[in-house]
């Protein structure tokens, strides 16, 4: 779902926060893609735990309320924030994947709000989705963004989406502006090309949100939070690492 302009007032503060992160990445900062890929695809997570700008955005921005309305949740917790920067000429694609198999959670009320900080078009790494895949019941293997291994390797491999466009029709957009948001469910199959635009970055901040039915999932092959949240398998997500953002506390 494309939600235009809802984060327009946050573009400049977030650009400042991104600049700080690029100058000094956090402990989870990484370069995505193969070593042979030209250009840089930079990622980082849980920036809100160490940077005041990201902290202000996730706790005081509109994301929690928007996610609650989309999910039909009575309250929303932040799962984490995720920075995705494709520099001009970055070859590394975002592989087709679902988000949920990577995550240490179970539940249906899980969504992402992908907010562009630059104009993005088809040549700049625009998100693409397999239409209707958020309703699929199958969880698929989760490809490593560095193309070295897979998470959730016990699951079936994802179908070859590009080889069968009639069976797997793709939904995308021609253009999004800074401050626009693309919202999607954690089971939606999605990906993106590299940034073939020669002069323009693709800076994106994606926040991940949890609703009422989400519980903690222990599994040896998932991406880990920035620190131990103090939860066990099946616990509700009651941890200061996953704050309730909406409704705001009095």
Automatic annotation (TrEMBL):
Stored Pfam families: PhyH (PF05721)
Top-level division of the source organism's lineage: Bacteria
Protein name as it appears in the record: Phytanoyl-CoA dioxygenase
Source organism (scientific name): Alloalcanivorax profundimaris
């Amino acid at each position: 779902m494309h939600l235009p302009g809802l984060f327009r007032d946050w573009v400049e503060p977030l650009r400042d926060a991104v600049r700080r992160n690029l100058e000094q990445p956090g402990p989870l900062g990484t370069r995505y893609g193969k070593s042979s890929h030209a250009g840089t695809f930079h990622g980082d997570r849980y920036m809100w735990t160490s940077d005041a700008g990201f902290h202000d955005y996730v706790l005081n921005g509109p994301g929690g309320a928007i996610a609650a309305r989309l999910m039909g949740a009575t309250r929303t917790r932040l799962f984490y924030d995720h920075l995705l920067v494709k520099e001009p000429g970055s070859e590394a694609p975002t592989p087709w994947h679902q988000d949920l198999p990577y995550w240490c959670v179970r539940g249906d009320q899980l969504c992402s709000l992908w907010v562009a900080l630059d104009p993005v078009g088809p040549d700049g790494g625009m998100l693409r989705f397999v239409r209707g895949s958020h309703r699929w019941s199958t969880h698929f293997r989760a490809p490593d963004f560095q193309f070295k291994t897979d998470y959730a390797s016990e699951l079936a491999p994802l179908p070859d989406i590009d080889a069968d466009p009639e069976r797997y029709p793709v939904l995308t957009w021609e253009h999004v502006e800074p401050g626009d948001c693309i919202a999607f469910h954690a089971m939606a199959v999605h990906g993106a090309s590299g940034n073939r635009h020669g002069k323009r970055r693709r800076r994106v901040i994606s926040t991940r949100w949890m609703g009422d039915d989400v519980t903690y999932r222990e599994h040896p092959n998932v991406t880990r939070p920035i620190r131990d949240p103090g939860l066990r398998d099946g616990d509700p997500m009651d941890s200061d690492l996953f704050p309730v953002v909406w409704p705001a506390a009095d």
